TrEMBL record:
<dbReference type="InterPro" id="IPR052957">
    <property type="entry name" value="Auxin_embryo_med"/>
</dbReference>
<dbReference type="InterPro" id="IPR058210">
    <property type="entry name" value="SACS/Nov_dom"/>
</dbReference>
<feature type="domain" description="Sacsin/Nov">
    <location>
        <begin position="63"/>
        <end position="118"/>
    </location>
</feature>
<protein>
    <recommendedName>
        <fullName>Sacsin/Nov domain-containing protein</fullName>
    </recommendedName>
</protein>
<dbReference type="InterPro" id="IPR036890">
    <property type="entry name" value="HATPase_C_sf"/>
</dbReference>
<dbReference type="Pfam" id="PF25794">
    <property type="entry name" value="SACS"/>
</dbReference>
Length: 134
């Protein structure tokens, strides 16, 4: 599924490169605006997933954040990978609904590994533009 999403995003970028570039700038602005909120966003996501436990383990060059909330669905993974996409709704029972908070985490880390339910994938700063030579 992750590989299919990646291919779909690349096709979308190639089909509308100017729009993709504009969206990338907006996403970068949002991520920079939220950069001091990364930990708060992770805590809010855990709360939205109805977690009863949340933990942080730090080590030399990074940290691990975990919770025991509901695992990601396929729709959750796709929303996480898209800009401004969320399965949460304004006025609902969740804190987040804009689909932008997690971008603050990706913006401050070189690598973000995600393991949730049957999904295991990562966002890597160095690979971010590797496939987007249009």
């Amino acid at each position: 599924m992750i590989e299919n999403l990646r291919k779909e995003f690349i096709q979308e970028a190639k089909a509308a490169p100017k729009l993709f570039k504009d969206l990338a700038k907006v996403e970068q602005y949002i991520a920079e605006s939220y950069k001091t909120r990364a930990l708060i966003e992770l805590m809010q996501n855990a709360d939205d997933a109805e977690a009863s436990k949340f933990g942080i383990h730090s080590f030399n060059n990074g940290f691990i954040v975990g919770n025991n909330g509901k695992p990601f669905t396929q729709n959750d993974v796709e929303a996480l990978c898209r800009s401004g996409s969320s399965n949460k709704h304004r006025g609902g029972e969740t804190i987040g609904y804009r689909g932008i908070g997690f971008k603050s985490v990706v913006n401050i880390a070189n690598v973000v590994n995600i393991i949730s339910g049957n999904f295991k994938f990562s966002f890597e700063r160095k690979k971010r533009y590797k496939h987007l030579i249009i």
